[in-house]
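Thread: Newbie trying to understand structure tokens

Hi all, I'm a second-year student working on a class project, and my supervisor (Dr. K.) asked me to get a predicted structure for one chain before our next meeting. I've only ever worked with sequences, so writing a 3D structure as a token string is new to me. If someone could post the tokens and maybe explain what I'm looking at, I'd be very grateful. Here's the chain:
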Amino acid sequence: MSRPLFALAALAALVSLLAGAPSAHALAAGKPAIDFTLPTLDGKQVHLADLRGKVVLIDFWASWCTPCKQELPLLEKLHAKLARRGLVVLVININKDKADAARFAAAAKLTMTVPLDPKAQVVARYEPPKMPSSYVVDRKGIVRKVNAGFYGASDLARLEADLTALLEQK
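---
Reply by user tm_fold:
Sure, no problem. This is what the structure looks like when written as tokens:
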């Protein structure tokens, strides 16, 4: 795909995302998680395929998204609670400017892995229904749950229950 056409496709996916309109192609529960490789805020690379065999929570966020800013500190607490049991949390930032993500991550004292998707390549493939959206991925790489939006502690409690159940499975 040419660069202008790709940029247009990524923009269309982002507009759809912001409008809260899920596409018929959006990644759904029961489907394999779409593989990706992204740079992280700390200068490393994360490759989803390398995490096969682990339970992974993938969350898409942006520093301009108010529900995202409310959700991330709670995801950080969940990460701290479940990381020693094997949970991997990837909070994928879609800001164009790395500095915006870095400022928020530092202020919120995030220890989770923060992959960067400034060109919206991964978010365009996942097509999350809202911002933020989380994907619970099992050890085999299958999406088990999609949590669209963030509506407070009840969302976090459901995510924790789903993740705990998957972590208990061997």
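A couple of things are worth pointing out once you decode it. Confidence is low (pLDDT under 50) at residues 1-23. The chain has one domain: 3-168. Feel free to ask follow-ups in this thread.
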